[in-house]
């Protein structure tokens, strides 16, 4: 068994619990963590004792999304590409990266032959919301908050939001980055069920144990009927297009929106930057940053 | 008009009530029953007085699913560990499970609205029949599920189309029961009504439809049904049909032998108790309280 640094891998109750385990940075998705998640899923795939995977985050938080703490090369403004680079080089690089580091991984999990259950408590933001929602089932703790705040400084959304929540609901939240709480997520169809925070993993493993009573081949085929049926209806095409558009969104840096973030990143003031970025959006419609319970 | 033995065909209130009528077998879908259902639809097509169809079940079930008795591939004399009948080839086994999915597609493509009046147990292929109807009204005591996945069988993509990916998997991977309210929440049915109001509610919709020009109804039905087919529903169902073959022939001795043995010996009821016991309590429905 592999020795993991950024995740936990615990076999129990006919399944395995894979925990995103970088609690100090709210389980931000670094390349190392994503590589280890790939390896852990591959390990679980080939282990016949494991009938389903429960994916969760350490410290009561699922994950705040992509780790953007690395230091990029300084940007040449107003071009929005690194100094002394070229558009053709950067665009091509980002397209390749997006395929390799995001699309391939997402499709691997989507096609995974055993059920993956996302167990979401606390923050589940940006790329982490895509990770949680692409799971075959998603259970939310009562304190779960979903959102894509990164679009406030320019980034893509993911078509999984449209597929699950529908056109209008997905746009409502992906055009603003607004937060939504567990109740709203249930109403939109992003999650299967809301569970008290201290019962979340227990409830997920109760489902794993029910799945484990069903013949493995039957589970696999019924997973395929749902998944491949949606691909027949165009989901895979939508994701391929999504990947192209996401590369464009990633490439597009406007001085007005991105310069401050880059400066903050270089000087170590990301938290302050996020506060400045998000202040005009408060109160949020749902979640802990909503002034009152369910203000719309 | 055709003569019917396993269904009832009663014209009334601008429509027709077609009742699956094998209450002693909880209206299990036998080959003769499905044949009569299609003959009845032939009659409906020729009768301009009938503006819409209501499909319901006699007794305490809408339908318990495929009749286990006369399925083509269900040989009980399997040789283990092969999971095949003596002397059977894989080619023969696979061929015996290939089937025509037009039985269900025809309901979807039918030129007059079909309203499902879901009166009770609606299991396995019975749930597919219910889901393929254009409008579905459930009585308070309706229960939907696909318990046959517990010994090896496929789900239908119609569950995914209507309930969405996550909800369809939650119930399609476990065979768990859901009640009328949960069916309403996830989009399997239009409305839940008291059992004694079920048919009246359905005929009320028929009478409203009957006020609209027939050609308009037909075209607006086609906008919805053909639109979803254009979006890929037909492709998804074709794939679904192909995947139903491995779903039925990939058999593990530990899951299938008890079923075959039970059929040969003490009977299927004992087996079902054995199979479903570990799943109780169910999350919804009449079996959700009492633990066995």
Describe the structure.
The complex is a heterodimer of chains A (296) and B (292). Chain A has eleven helices and eleven strands. The mean pLDDT of chain A is 92. Chain A is 46% helix and 14% strand. In chain A, a hairpin with a 2-residue loop joins strand 1 (7-12) and strand 2. Chain A is of the alpha/beta class and 296 residues long. Chain B is an alpha/beta fold. Chain B contains eleven helices and ten strands. Chain B has helices at 31-46, 90-97, 102-109, 125-132, 157-163, 165-172, 180-186, 198-209, 214-249, 253-264, 268-276, and strands spanning 7-12, 15-20, 52-57, 61-63, 114-118, 121-123, 135-139, 143-145, 178-179, 191-193. A six-stranded mixed β-sheet of chain B has the order 1-2-3-5-7-10, sandwiched between helices. In chain B, strands 4-6-8-9 form a four-stranded mixed β-sheet. In chain B, strand 1 (7-12) and strand 2 (15-20) form a beta hairpin. Chain B is globular. The termini of chain B are far apart. The model of chain B has no long low-confidence stretch (mean pLDDT 91).
Jot down its keywords:
heterodimer; A: 296 residues; alpha/beta; 6-stranded mixed β-sheet; 3-stranded mixed β-sheet; 11 helices; B: 292 residues; 4-stranded mixed β-sheet; 45% helix
Q: Helicity level of chain B, as a percent range?
A: 40-55%
Number of helices of chain A: 11
Strand line-up across the major sheet of chain A: 1-2-3-6-8-11
Are there runs of chain A of 5+ residues with pLDDT below 50, and where?
Answer: none
Overall form of chain B: globular
Largest sheet of chain B: 6 strands, mixed
Mean pLDDT of chain A: 92
Oligomer: heterodimer
Layout of secondary structure:
The complex is a heterodimer of chains A (296) and B (292).
Chain A lengths: L6 E6 L2 E6 L10 H15 L7 E5 L17 E2 L4 E2 L4 H24 L5 E5 L2 E3 L1 H8 L2 E5 L3 E3 L11 H7 L1 H8 L5 E2 H7 L4 E3 L4 H12 L4 H17 L2 H17 L3 H13 L2 H9 L18
Helix pairs in contact in A: 2-9, 4-5, 10-11
Chain B lengths: L6 E6 L2 E6 L10 H16 L5 E6 L3 E3 L26 H8 L4 H8 L4 E5 L2 E3 L1 H8 L2 E5 L3 E3 L11 H7 L1 H8 L5 E2 H7 L4 E3 L4 H12 L4 H36 L3 H12 L3 H9 L16
Parallel strand pairs in B: 2-3, 3-5, 4-6, 5-7, 6-8, 7-10
Antiparallel strand pairs in B: 1-2, 8-9
Helix pairs in contact in B: 5-6, 10-11
């Amino acid at each position: 068994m592999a020795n993991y640094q950024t995740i936990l891998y615990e076999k129990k109750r006919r399944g395995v619990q894979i925990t995103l385990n970088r609690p100090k940075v709210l389980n931000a998705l670094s390349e190392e963590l994503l590589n280890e998640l790939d390896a852990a899923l591959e390990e679980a795939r080939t282990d016949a004792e494991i009938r389903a995977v429960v994916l969760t985050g350490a410290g009561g938080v699922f994950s705040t999304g992509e780790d953007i703490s690395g230091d990029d090369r300084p940007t040449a403004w107003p071009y929005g590409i690194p100094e002394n680079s070229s558009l053709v080089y950067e665009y091509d690089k980002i397209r390749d990266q997006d395929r390799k580091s995001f699309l391939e991984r997402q499709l691997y999990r989507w096609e995974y032959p055993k059920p993956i259950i996302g167990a979401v408590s606390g923050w589940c933001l940006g790329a982490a919301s895509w990770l949680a929602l692409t799971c075959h089932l998603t259970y939310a703790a009562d304190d779960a908050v979903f959102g894509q705040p990164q679009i406030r400084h320019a980034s893509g959304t993911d078509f999984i939001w449209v597929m699950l929540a529908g056109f209008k609901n997905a746009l409502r939240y992906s055009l603003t980055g607004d937060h939504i709480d567990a109740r709203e997520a249930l109403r939109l169809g992003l999650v299967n069920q809301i569970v008290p925070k201290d019962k979340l993993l227990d409830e997920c493993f109760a489902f794993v144990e029910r799945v484990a009573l069903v013949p493995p081949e039957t589970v696999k085929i019924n997973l395929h009927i749902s998944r491949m049926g949606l691909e027949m209806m165009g989901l895979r095409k939508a994701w391929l297009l999504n990947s192209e558009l996401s590369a464009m969104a990633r490439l597009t840096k406007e001085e007005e929106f991105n310069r401050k973030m880059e400066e903050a990143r270089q000087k170590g003031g990301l938290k302050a930057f996020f506060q400045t970025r998000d202040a005009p959006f408060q109160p949020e419609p749902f979640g802990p940053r909503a002034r009152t319970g369910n203000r719309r | 008009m055709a003569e019917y033995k396993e269904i009832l065909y009663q014209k009334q209130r601008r429509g027709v009530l077609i009742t699956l009528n094998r209450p002693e077998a909880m209206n299990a879908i036998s080959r003769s029953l499905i044949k009569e259902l299609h003959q009845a639809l032939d009659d409906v097509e020729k009768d301009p007085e009938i503006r819409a169809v209501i499909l319901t079940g006699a007794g305490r079930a809408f339908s318990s699913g495929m009749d286990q008795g006369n399925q083509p591939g269900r040989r009980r004399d399997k040789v283990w560990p092969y999971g095949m009948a003596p002397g059977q080839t894989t080619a023969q086994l696979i061929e015996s499970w290939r089937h025509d999915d037009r039985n269900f597609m025809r309901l979807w493509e039918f030129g007059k609205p079909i309203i499902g009046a879901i009166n009770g147990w609606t299991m396995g292929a019975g749930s597919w029949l219910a889901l393929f109807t254009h409008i579905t009204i459930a009585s308070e005591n309706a229960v939907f599920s696909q318990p046959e996945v517990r010994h090896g069988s496929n789900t239908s993509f119609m569950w995914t189309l209507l309930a969405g990916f996550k909800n369809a998997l939650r119930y399609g991977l476990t065979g768990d029961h859901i009640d009328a309210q949960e069916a309403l929440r996830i989009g399997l049915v239009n409305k839940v009504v008291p059992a004694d109001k079920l048919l009246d509610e359905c005929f009320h919709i028929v009478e409203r439809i009957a006020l609209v020009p027939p050609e308009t109804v037909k075209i607006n039905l086609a906008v919805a049904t053909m639109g979803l087919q254009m979006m890929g529903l037909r492709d998804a169902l074709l794939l679904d049909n192909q995947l139903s073959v491995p779903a039925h022939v990939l058999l593990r001795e530990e899951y299938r032998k008890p079923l075959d043995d039970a059929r040969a010996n003490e009977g299927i009821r004992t087996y079902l108790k054995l199979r479903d016991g570990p799943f109780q309590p169910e999350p919804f429905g009449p079996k959700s309280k009492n633990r066995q």
